[in-house]
Design goal:
single chain, mainly alpha, Serine Threonine Protein Phosphatase 5, Tetratricopeptide repeat, membrane
Length: about 180
């Protein structure tokens, strides 16, 4: 029964059974017909209907990892080394069965990072524009254009913008290089 609860990601049933006292050790020590212990079962990918309850591949992957770690925390450490009929340890089974979800999570995360970068660039553009605009003038030129302090401010602002852009490009190049 606990094996089914683990496979179907039924957390409430799992917690109820695990809280059953001395019988819980008998229930968690069983093997299925493929020689999988409960940690192997937790390492398998959740059913699609359970994954669909969480939006975003990265969040799905996080939930899967949390579930695996939860089951791992209650089993005897020797369970981590047990091999099933396919010769896989639970951690290997987790890695193999979650490979596609991991790739989707990586794409999803890169997409979010790209979108955030675009939004950040737009915000910075507006911020720099607002920094030079004075509300009481009609000409569009800064009132303090000929003041030395304003020229220092403009220069420092421009240098910081270009430094940030260069740093951002460096981080993207390093990120691309690490993924190649």
């Amino acid at each position: 029964m606990i094996q089914t609860a683990i496979c179907l990601r039924q957390e409430k049933v799992f917690n109820l059974i695990y809280g059953a006292g001395k019988w819980k050790y008998l229930m968690i020590s069983g093997l299925d017909k493929h020689n999988n212990n409960i940690l192997h079962l937790a390492a398998k990918l959740a059913p699609p209907n359970r994954l669909a309850q969480i939006s975003g591949a990265a969040l799905q992957m996080q939930k899967e990892l949390q579930w695996y770690k939860e089951v791992e925390s209650i089993v005897d450490p020797s369970y981590k080394l047990d091999l099933n009929h396919d010769g896989e340890k639970p951690s290997e089974l987790f890695t193999n069965s979650h490979k596609q979800l991991m790739e989707e999570a990586e794409k999803w995360t890169k997409g979010i990072a790209h979108s955030s970068t675009v939004v950040g660039a737009l915000i910075i553009t507006i911020m720099f524009t607002a920094a030079f605009t004075v509300h009481t003038q009609d000409s569009g030129y800064p009132i303090f254009l000929h003041k030395k302090a304003f020229k220092v401010f403009i220069t420092a602002d421009a240098v910081s913008l270009f430094a940030a852009l260069l740093r951002h490009d460096d981080s993207l190049l390093c990120y691309s290089y690490n993924n190649a």
